[in-house]
Amino acid sequence: MPELPEVETVRRGLQPAMEGARIVRAETRRADLRFPFQPDFVARLQGQTVTGLGRRAKYLMADLESGDVLLMHLGMSGSFRVVTAEGAATPGEFHYPRNEDRAHDHVLFQMSSGASVIFNDPRRFGYMKIIARAALDEEPLLKGLGPEPLGNAFDAAMLAKATAGKATSLKAALLDQRVVAGLGNIYVCEALFRSHLSPKRKAATLADKKSAPTDHAKRLVTSIHEVLNQAIEAGGSSLRDHRQTSGELGYFQHSFQVYDREGEKCRTRGCGGTVKRFVQNGRSTFWCPSCQK
């Protein structure tokens, strides 16, 4: 499933076509994706100008002139294609052809910018929902989400307070969207490796007896910031289904230090260890037992 950097990359790709443009026509080509479309879904979109295109955790959020917000989630295999009179964006070096079966083009937005924005989702785990902006704080899909890992509210003190006394593992705590929103398996593995912290370590060790941040917490927050910013700059990671809106693959998978590198030599200078893989909370965890403590 796309993680925060992939969703942010998609947002930036959609922004020129959607932001400031009016939805001339909206079309749903089936009754549902992961969830059924609202009965008035098309009616609430057509004729509306997209005043802003943002992101919250792994959700895309299009602000509409009406005061509604179009919430969009990519699911496992969802992707957007932007088509203009000049054609699609030129694929880059890591291009991988999209699914050419247009039967999976489930939602279409014809924009006043001249662009057609098409949502394709073979597995149909993605979804869209229109929510009144005034009701966002009570929206079940968003309520309870923790702070953005790249936002001002996320720092070592906040992380220490959120994990103080937790008996769960450090990795499980970071994947808990109530603790921090938007982190997923790939970037948690990478951030833990960079901060030399074991995914098995108790989350409570990020706080001292007064719930103040330990050096571990400070190091981890720095690593999370670094890995996310670098991944966004690289266009995200392209594992399995994720593609940018241009059809290009993200570059960051070529910078993985530990993820999907089982059996390879650890890249920490002077370590000499070997990257291991084990299943943790139902997901593959990659780490170096020699230097992650």
Uncertain runs are 89-98, 236-252
CATH fold description of the largest domain:
N-terminal domain of MutM-like DNA repair proteins
| Element-by-element helix/strand order | HEHEEEEEEEHHHHEE
CATH homologous superfamily (4th level) name of the largest domain: MutM-like, N-terminal
What would you report as the Rg, rounded to the nearest angstrom? Answer: 20 Å
Figure out the total of helices: 6
Written overview of the protein:
By secondary structure, the protein is α+β, with helices and mostly antiparallel strands. The chain folds into two domains: 4-138, N-terminal domain of MutM-like DNA repair proteins (Alpha-Beta Barrel); 156-287, Helicase, Ruva Protein, domain 3 (Orthogonal Bundle). It has six helices and ten strands; from the N terminus they run H-E-H-E-E-E-E-E-E-E-H-H-H-H-E-E. The chain has helices at residues 4-18, 41-45, 156-163, 170-175, 185-194, 215-234; strands spanning 23-28, 50-56, 59-64, 68-73, 79-83, 105-111, 116-120, 127-132, 276-280, 283-287. The strands form three sheets. Strands 1-6-7-5 form a four-stranded antiparallel sheet. The protein has a four-stranded antiparallel sheet with strand order 2-3-4-8. The chain is elongated and about 60 Å long.
